[in-house]
Write a structure and sequence with these properties.
Shape: elongated
Oligomer: single chain
Radius of gyration: 19 Å
Strand content: 15-25%
Strand order of the largest sheet: 5-6-4-7-8
CATH topology of the largest domain: Rossmann fold
Largest sheet: 5 strands, mixed
Order of helices and strands: HEHEHEHEHEEEEHEH
Number of strands: 9
Helix content: 25-40%
């Protein structure tokens, strides 16, 4: 992701002021020389990186997932220090449109208990978290918009057993797969399926750079909905 983001940022006329790595961590860099930071690292590093950026008045775009249980504290600190953060489980423009379709379909299917919903997500072998942040967002949207579901349950490499009120998420990890998310509503009579399939990582990288352009010069807490005006 870092290489893809750098390539697109340079193609859009931006400069890369530094690259934080394990051998040259964020704290070793002069953040005053940068306009925006883009955080795509690891869950256990993300919050420290975000807090460092906020403390240095550096707007930060966050694409790392699996740390969002700490999001309320990050939001509180951002507001307290008048900082700037834009976070998303997925920066792809297509995925964010897919999110809106998912919410609408979940609302339409609410009350039609004859249809059983499930989510399937497929990612590359290096994907550390399961389910993906995108799958969690999709699941949360279904819970919010469909009265049939109260919680979700995960199955890795096979579909999980679900009870009434539970939405099943199945996570697969396969070689060289940028990311596919499928939502199915199945009944004895028919099925309705929507799918987003990423062909490469360029869509995620482009969205992150566009988000960085959006947050520059702004204060507050933003999401991709603000960027895309969805």
């Amino acid at each position: 992701m870092g290489k893809a983001i750098e390539e697109i940022a340079l193609s859009r006329g931006h400069e890369i002021s530094f690259r934080a790595t394990s051998s040259h961590p964020l704290k070793d860099h002069d953040l005053s020389q940068s306009d925006v930071a883009i955080e795509f690292s690891r869950p256990e590093l993300a919050v420290d990186h975000i807090n460092t950026c906020i403390s240095n008045s550096l707007p930060v775009v966050v694409g790392t997932t699996a740390w969002h249980e700490q999001l309320p504290g990050v939001i509180e600190r951002t507001q307290k220090e008048n900082g700037s953060i834009l976070y998303a489980s997925n920066f792809s423009i297509g995925v964010n449109i897919f999110f809106e379709i998912n919410k609408k379909l979940a609302s339409l299917m609410s009350g039609h208990s004859e249809y059983k919903a499930c989510i399937e997500e497929i990612h590359h072998l290096q994907k550390l978290d399961a389910p993906s942040g995108t799958a969690i967002t999709l699941a949360d949207q279904i819970l919010e918009n469909n009265e049939s579901y109260m919680s979700w349950v995960l199955g890795e490499e096979k579909a999980p057993h679900t009870n009434d009120g539970q939405l099943g998420i199945t996570s697969f990890r396969k070689p060289d797969v940028p990311g596919t998310h499928t939502i199915t509503y199945a009944s004895d009579i028919d099925s309705i399926t929507i799918t987003h399939e990423a062909h490469n990582r360029k869509g995620f990288a482009l969205g992150a750079v566009i988000a960085s352009e959006f947050i520059y010069g702004k204060k507050g807490i933003f999401t991709m909905n603000d960027v895309l005006n969805l």
